[in-house]
Amino acid sequence: MKNKEVKELVLDALRTELDPRLREYGFRRRPRSFRSVRDIPRGNQCIEVVVASNPYYDRTAIAHVMTFFEYSFPEVSRHLANMLGAEDHPQRGEVCVRSDASAVPPLRQRYQCYVTSPSGCRTSIAKLAQVLEAHCVPLLLGHQTVEDIVHAFEEKDRRFQWSDNSGAMVAAAHIILGNPKAASSVLKRFYNTPALRREFALAFDYCNSLSQTVKK
To answer: What pLDDT does 119 receive?
Structure first.
């Protein structure tokens, strides 16, 4: 099948199999979009569907349907851009956290959604929706604030995919929570080698400048 045909097939299945489940929790998806979004304090959460049409790594499938979840906090992202340098800000737009939703369930309950035929698409998406509702949605409902994300980071919650920039992101979160001293502390703990401190020198300088402003 052509890529466009595959995506139309998946979109049609999302309408009937995924949307009704996510709608119950406040998620909304535009008709032509693969992103379901809900508002949370200071930002929003998103569950994104990514479709790999006719994947080269599985010739039996017409589609590999992957899912990711995101947190967008505009205030955090603005500070993060200042800490990393706007041109080096690796995340798109205001996204602060992006993780693979398929990695959230326990190992034996994880599901890779491969669609092998047009007639089987709804069944595959229905199974995907079931797994998302059982594992990803509760995670998102339980982590709705900036404070929740900071706590998940401190607890090293493996359901989130933390990157090298996560320390700076959490420091930015502390800044908007009114605690630049905690922001500096996170940077010192997370970037605790000379090489990392050089790489994230701009972040250290930014937090130090805010701390000095608070002291004044």
So the answer is: 97
DSSP code for 33: -
Range 165-184 average pLDDT: 94
Three-state SS annotation for 156-198: CCCCCCCCCCHHHHHHHHHHHCCCHHHHHHHHHHHCCCHHHHH
Tally of helices (H runs) and strands (E runs) in the chain = 10, 6
Q: Where are the beta strands (DSSP E) in the chain?
A: 28-29, 35-40, 43-53, 63-72, 95-100, 113-115
Place of tokens 């398929």: 102
Coil, strand or helix: which one is 72? strand
- Taking the whole predicted model, whether its pTM rises above 0.70 is answered as yes
Instruction: Specify whether the CB–CB gap between 76 and 69 falls below 8 A.
Output: no
